[in-house]
Design brief:
Distance between the termini: 29 Å
Helix content: 10-25%
Shape: globular
Length: about 260
């Protein structure tokens, strides 16, 4: 595996996956040494500004094809005149994704570490909002054919549902939240309604900061109620954004998260 490093790439393709999800495929000769098998890991996009350091934004690697040198990233976007998401979702990365033209170049930094679930768990429980869809989809597609469990996905509209190649016993539950920038418990409430399966699950959660904390707390409490031990790494929980904050604010909140393991 090659080391994490800066690479210059260009936009090869750009199209809508759903009304609020945009896919951009990057390419370039500098991807020749980009490591394979990094789906669920991340790259950082570098945006040049007037300051000494470029602004960086982190995005999940949805797919990478070494043969075609295509790196696929998905972006949650929205109508700029009626933004449902605030903070990071109105920042430089979204503006770039919405306005970039085919052939334009950008520098990426990566890849960072993968965020994969434990394929050997008895069953699986994944949950997240639209910002986590790329990582959750990548994880689901790497599960064994006999995997079982639940996936709860919060999306903006009914039209934001899209096919995910999941094993037949992985149940996908779609939850609509048209105003994710307003404080709510829609994702947490939906997760709590799901009946647990027998055995010890692997938990994978990514969402808005407060929702992530609520979900992590619920899963830890449920493990305790069912007398299930929590091994290191058995619960992965991360915030991809924080309500009312830009990416920097979310990073500070994560660093100061006193409930984190």
């Amino acid at each position: 595996m090659s080391e994490r490093k800066l690479r210059n790439v260009a936009v090869k393709k750009k199209y809508d996956l759903t009304p609020n999800m945009l896919r951009i495929i990057l390419t370039g000769e500098e991807l020749k040494d980009f490591p394979e098998g990094q789906e669920s890991a991340y790259v950082k996009l570098l945006f040049v500004s007037n300051s000494d350091k470029p602004t960086k934004r982190t995005y999940t690697i949805r797919k990478f094809d070494l043969s075609s040198l295509e790196l696929t990233l998905d972006f949650v976007v929205h109508d700029v005149n009626n933004a449902a998401l605030k903070g990071e979702h109105s920042g430089p990365a979204i503006s770039w994704a919405q306005n970039v033209e085919i052939g334009e170049q950008i520098t990426i930094d990566g890849p960072g570490p993968t965020k994969l679930i434990d394929r050997d768990a008895d069953w699986f429980f994944l949950a997240g909002d639209m910002t986590a869809l790329p990582a959750i989809s990548a994880n689901i597609e790497q599960l064994p054919a006999n995997a079982k469990g639940h996936v709860v996905l919060e999306i903006l509209t009914e039209a934001d549902k899209y096919p995910i190649n999941a094993p037949k016993d992985i149940n996908i539950h779609w939850v609509i939240n048209a105003q994710p920038s307003q404080k709510n418990s829609i994702l947490i409430d939906a997760v709590k309604k799901i009946k647990w399966l027998d055995g010890a699950p692997h938990i994978w959660v990514a969402s808005e900061f407060d929702a992530m904390r609520g979900l992590r707390r619920y899963f830890k409490e449920t493990f305790a109620e069912k007398n299930l031990s929590i091994n290191r790494g058995q619960i992965y929980a991360s915030s991809y954004w924080k309500m009312g904050e830009a990416d920097e604010g979310n990073k500070v909140a994560k660093k100061n998260d006193d409930e984190a393991e």
